[in-house]
Amino acid sequence: MGGVDEAKIGSSIMVRAYRDQLSIGWLVVRAGLAWLTVFADLSIAGQDLDPEAARSGLRTVVYGGMPQAVPGVAERPVFWAGAGLSEVRGGVGQRVEYSGSLLVRNPGRIRFSAKLAGRLELLVDGRSVLSGQSSGLLLAGDPVELSGGDHEVLVRYWRVEGVEPGQLAIFWSGDDFTLEPLPADVFSHYPQSGDADLSELSAGRTISDALRCSACHEGWGESDPLRAPDLGTALPHLSDEEIVRRLMSGAGNHSMPHFGMTREQSESATAWLRSVTGPAAGALPATVVKKGDREAGERLLLTLGCVACHQVSADEVERQWYGGPALIRGASSRSRGWLEQWLQSPEKLNVSHRMLN
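That's the Cytochrome c domain-containing protein sequence above. Prediction below.
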């Protein structure tokens, strides 16, 4: 095993981790947000609760950093605390365990790897197939022979002093497939007493985290409130009409509350914002498109993981708790300068962004 520079696999492969992330901090949920689960279309919340049937996802338990061990169910073992996600906000020494079954569809020699900031131990059928500590690099294990079918899996993750933010995403590769994140549909667990409530809590925590309730409502003081994009850097790249539209009807798949402003109110607010942030950026020279650029761009979109959270056409966008806006709609409302800045250094436009740089 050894550390491999994350650039060799493209850090954007982590984008799937954001869509599937389930928060572990649950005080806000216990305070009243669990009722939101009736609106969740997540598979964990809506599946049959037959006590004899396996359910999707892995059983989770968080130890340390909270008054008691916190149980739950997660679609898969992934998170990135630096994205403002609350999965592992506790201090050094906090441990998260994921347990259940792993479905192997392609038997043979399989190598497990992890994009890791912390310490990890991964066991399959009681055997350690990946273990170690990393500060953000790719940790790779030795290939192991696995038969087709379900295998018992146990994942242990620890926060480590001096390694911030906490991060975990597990990948696998084999003789007939390249390195890819472990998909949610290979994980399952059999229910135990009380699991129906755990499923509801897990879905409620996802909604609470995705809608950024903690930006206004505190939990256990685990983290600072999430911050919205800096208007001074964002608004110069939006037209007046786009700002008015967003204030009136929202910006699509986003977490900002809709305040029901009228056009007159929105135009007044836009005028004031312009007086503070300055006028819209001027048009940039037209992009020179060379032969093959469009095809190369399409390959990047489809291979770097962009479509895990974004769809190309606005009419294809489905509601996802961690989904991003439609790319066509987003590109049409942004200047070229803004798009270049966002792709290169998104933290300069929004320090609490959820897009991997």
